[in-house]
Amino acid sequence: MRTLETLVGGEWVASAEWIDVLDPADVRTPVARVPALTAKDVTRAYDHAERGFALWKRTSPFERARIFTDAARLIRERVERIAADVTAENGKTLTEATGETLKSADFLEYYAGLARQGYGTLLHDVRPNHRTHTQREPIGVILVISPWNDPLITPARKLAPLLAAGNAAVFKPATETPASGLHFARALHDAGLPAGVLNVVTGRTAEIEEALLDDPRIVGITFTGSNAVGNRIRRRLADRNVRFQGELGGKNASVVLKDADLPAAAKAVVAASFGQAGQRCTATSRVVVERPVYEEFTRLLVAEVEELRVGPGSDPAATLCPLSSPRQRDSVLAHLAGAVEQGATVLTGGHADTGGERAHGCYVQPTVLADVTPETAIWREEVFGPVLVLRAVDGFDAAVEAVNDSGFGLAAAVFTRDLARAHRFVDEAECGQVAVNSTTTGWDVHLPFGGFHDSGTAYKEQGEEVLRFSTRVKTVAVHFGGRRS
Q1: What local confidence, expressed as pLDDT, does residue 484 receive?
Q2: Signed CA dihedral, 94, 466, 123, 476: sign only
Q3: Catalytic site includes residue 281
Q4: What is the pTM of this model?
Q5: Which is the catalytic residue, given 176, 247, 382, 461?
Q6: 381 is catalytic
Q7: Is the model's pLDDT at 483 over the cut of 80?
């Protein structure tokens, strides 16, 4: 078992206590251990971040871009090692882990380019002999809390823009998957990121939560995770002038209209539903099908699902990985049991998969449920696993109504050959991300990302939109000669 140190104040540090990191494909043997930092360690991380910010905000944007470009190069050079660690601690397939690793380098390269451009707007001024503009400035020390399902790309999505803009960060990776985030931090450190600009706090949340959330130097918190935790953080910040960016839950729906290319739609829905064993916030978990094609589409869908091969992420033949922890596996199985008790029919799957080499892993069979109504809990609750529910509806309006019948509003898709209905769906779906004849997953680095309603906050991630969270706007007017009016 490897021992990994964490990055605080530009140095790699250990601790008196350690946290074991388990392989969800076989939880008997830890794959690594990381420091279990204390509340005092967290305060020390904020001390370093405060000093790091004072230096970093004055660092040339071109130097920031150089560091990001070099860090991206290092990640690409280390892709095999990093991807293997992502698979080992998270469980996802090597193909998925490799894609995640390369995409994290994309984030660094994209924001290196934006750092070179500068952020601001030239404005007309009613006063003669004045030139007025806005400029965006970093806001300070930001706390980054990332989840276990995308342990490398989520830190990259959050850290790259806020660091490129000149902020400093204290980064708390998920306890289950810290090694991936440490790879990202190491690439930046090795590329020359100044001490204190990025500090990584590994530890047990219950022991360090107060020190993490209540430090007076925090000016922003960006969080990806459950609604329960996100709302708890938001309430904790209610009387403080601290920005909160939350990417929370989803109950994403794909609509298959009667004129759709059904085989293509079935393949796309399966890819969106069962990639990473359904552990994506944008995964399709509901499928709404127009009644005339419901039976045919269901047959095609189930056939595609039954072609999936369950196995450890390190197996090149595996197309469905384990869940990321025993706790998550048990949660998914509880959702399935509840759905069956409420009358849902299991068309395929429906159980844990404990055969052979999977006996000590966190495997759940890919599952498709029918006979689900709007009153069935699994129609509304986020499962975050390899589970898909089907529902037939009569007509386009009923399909849109079914999509919007949710407290969430992250992603939706429609499959149709009718351009008019495609555009109507785009306009009427109450979601932050809408796809036509494509998956609900797979949004690139330059595309603004975030949901409506209970799926998130007003601050988007990715693209230039994220700068609304990580920068503040200053308006500047310059009188350059002549008589003032």
Answers
A1: 53
A2: negative
A3: yes
A4: 0.96
A5: 247
A6: no
A7: no
